[in-house]
Design brief:
62 residues; mainly alpha; rod-shaped
């Protein structure tokens, strides 16, 4: 029987664990870079470019 998520194999289990850790690290790095860019730009949501984002998303501005 074919097991798609067979974690009984030691090598596959470690590979899967490292993949999950790398995915979490990539997400944290993305958030950190976004916060750093917002901090360097003088804050997020101060109106600069906010109108363009609302136009692209199709939602009305606030």
């Amino acid at each position: 029987m074919l097991h798609i998520f067979s974690l009984s194999n030691r090598t596959y289990r470690y590979l899967f664990m490292v993949l999950i850790i790398a995915l979490i690290g990539t997400g944290l790095a993305t958030v950190a870079l976004g916060l750093l860019a917002g901090d360097r730009a003088g804050g997020v949501g101060n109106g600069a470019g906010n109108e363009d984002a609302c136009l692209y998303s199709g939602r009305p501005g606030r």
